[in-house]
Amino acid sequence: MTHPDRRLHELRLQQLALYLLEAEQILAAWDTYSDQHTGPDGWPHDETAYGFRQAQRDADTWRSFNRIHSSANDLVAIAEVQLQKLPERHVHPRWAWQISTLYNALGRLNTLQGEWLDVRATLPTSARPGVEEYDGPLAARNAEVWHHLDECSLHGQAVLDINTAIRRTKPRPSAAAHTAGLPGPGAAPAKTRR
């Protein structure tokens, strides 16, 4: 029988893989739209429609990420521990940098989300989804977080790859005693988008 912590970790890895896939699809749809609705100089044909579609991209990306938002820091922390347990010959040189990049992106996301919650708490009771007084600040938050969400989608694959590597290799001897409590088998890695 699978340990409950391992089952939960597997579920979170699957949710991360789904986010990576959805973020790739959202970005591809945006790139297609942007290519079709801008001139050779890169300026949009209709700035209002372009801005609306960009705001939709930002909101869709946040909505997809929100599924893993509460567990993202734990996923990265576990990957960091797993990385330390991997024999050096199985460690990809970019993984440590990607883990650091993910921590930075998640830190900014958490800060910006906290700021949005503070703003939302000051809004009048009449401000709710569908009302500009609510939707405007929310769209601003989504625009601010998009870069960091993109960083997570670019580098999140490392979390899946590290998990796969730890499952396929024998941990370093000094780390073997600590392996029992770590989440084990995870979701199959998602395809990288770049």
From TrEMBL:
Which domain of life does the protein's organism represent?
Bacteria
Q: Where is the composition biased (Low complexity)?
A: 175-194
Q: Where is this region: Disordered?
A: 169-194
Task: List the protein's name.
Answer: DinB family protein
